Amino acid sequence: MLKKIVATSADGIFATTLFTYNGNKIVSIDGIQKHVDFTYTDGLISKTVTLNKINQLLETIEYTYVAGELIRTKSPNNYIINYIHNSDKTISYEKLAINSAYKEVKMYHGILYFQNENFIKDERILDNAAVGVTSSYSISFDYDSKHNPLFNVLGYKKILDYNEAISSNNSLISTVIISTTKDEQIASSAKFYKSSFTYDLENYPTEQVSETALFANGNRGYQKTEYFY
Predict the structure, then answer these.
(1) Predicted TM-score (pTM) of this structure
(2) Which of 18, 69, 131, 170 is the most exposed place for a label (fewest CB within 10 A)?
């Protein structure tokens, strides 16, 4: 089981994240800026509670399942994500924000795609775009053939809002495409984010290097991540 991650930026600043377990159930993830506690019900992750260490705010997320499949993610007073599992193995979803009047406002809807136990694409349409404007967002992932160190954690691959972290393998390239259509004019942009890995003899990653890692302040840059088991 993955016990620790140490991420080091180009200027030598490092951040340590610790993972604790009860058997193959994850108990908590403790990082520099946040701490996450996990709760299980019938072998599935039913709740997470995240403490933001910067402002001391707590966020609770509740997960609801039917026949072992996630159908709803809810952050009380913040948002709801509803999921529909389709016959072709894709998953349709919609995200609703909860506004100050406690009314649900549709933010976007989309489809999640999977292949070989990997989360390969999220395509969404924004529902809160201006009148006459159509906005879309997609992110896709290319993977190695090695082991994701968290894939064997009980119930982890079911929590669909964790993106590529729930996959069987490790993401080498992520591609983000944003498109906007207005008055039949289309504007689009594409960005690519790459990582390289070093593995141990059992094909688990021991080191990850990325030139485009996303930091907590929203900036991107060089980062080396070391994995300890």
Answers:
(1) 0.92
(2) 131
Residue 174 near residue 164 (C-beta atoms within 8 A): yes
- Residue range 152-182, pLDDT digits in tens: 999 999 999 999 999 999 999 999 999 999 9
Question: What pLDDT shows up at residue 2?
Answer: 97
The answer to whether the CB of 141 falls within 8 A of the CB of 174 is yes
Alpha helix (H) ranges present in 52-158?
A: none
Q: What total number of domains does the chain contain?
A: 1
The enclosing domain of 205 has a CATH number of 2.40.160
Give the number of other CB atoms < 10 A from CB of residue 112: 20
Query: Rounded to the nearest 5 degrees, what angle is found at the Cα of 167, between the Cα atoms of 202 and 199?
Result: 25
> Which residue type sits at 220?
R
Tokens describing residue 132: 């006459």
Q: Tell me, what's the pLDDT at 129?
A: 86
